[in-house]
UniProtKB/TrEMBL annotation:
GO molecular function, one term: acyltransferase activity, transferring groups other than amino-acyl groups
Boundaries of every N-acetyltransferase domain copy: 1-149
Key words, A-Z: Transferase
Keyword Nucleotide-binding among UniProt keywords: no
Lineage: Bacteria, Pseudomonadati, Pseudomonadota, Gammaproteobacteria, Oceanospirillales
One Pfam family per UniProt: Acetyltransf_1
Record flagged with keyword Transferase: yes
Domain of life where this protein originates: Bacteria
Name of this chain's protein: GNAT family N-acetyltransferase
Gene3D superfamilies reported in the protein's UniProt record: 3.40.630.30
Length: 152
């Protein structure tokens, strides 16, 4: 398994669609972003798209692993690799938005992300089709953050 930075033009759209069902939205946030990938035997099996949003702060817009490779620690390793690379770019704070429930929320908390705010009706207002997980519709977005500066 290899973790590396790739050109956003090489970003695996089909994999990114696992985490975000709108190709139009994915295309919009790929512009002026960094893309980090998990590669196995020359094939990209996971990707993380990050963008600088203000001084020393970046936002993760998408992180996803191909379904056949999930639950193997690849996503966690990819996120850890991404955070390390962002720290090398003098990024101190990383933010992201996610649904208000689901496995991804536990995943982010385990890494050290904290809830900062809630955007009511985000998924209703920004996606043409409703997004469901385990039969429940995603409506609100949680905004999470992590401070990645080393602790003394």
């Amino acid at each position: 398994m290899k973790y590396l930075e790739i050109n956003t033009k090489e970003a695996p759209i089909q994999i990114l669609l696992e985490a975000d069902p709108s190709e139009k939205i994915i295309t919009s946030y790929l512009k002026n972003s960094w893309c980090y990938a998990a590669q196995d035997k020359g094939e990209i099996i996971g990707a993380c798209v990050v963008k600088l949003i203000r001084d020393n702060t970046a936002e993760i817009f998408n992180i996803s692993v191909h379904p056949q490779h999930q639950k193997k620690g690849i996503g966690t390793n990819l996120l850890t690799f991404t955070l390390k690379k962002l720290l090398e770019k003098s990024i101190h704070r990383v933010e992201l938005g996610t649904g208000a429930f689901g496995y991804q929320l536990t995943y982010y908390h385990r890494i050290g992300f904290r809830v900062e705010s809630v955007i009511k009706n985000y998924f209703i207002n920004n996606y043409a089709e409703p997004i469901f997980e385990n039969g429940i519709q995603h409506k609100d977005m949680l905004r999470l953050y992590i401070d990645i500066r080393p602790r003394i």
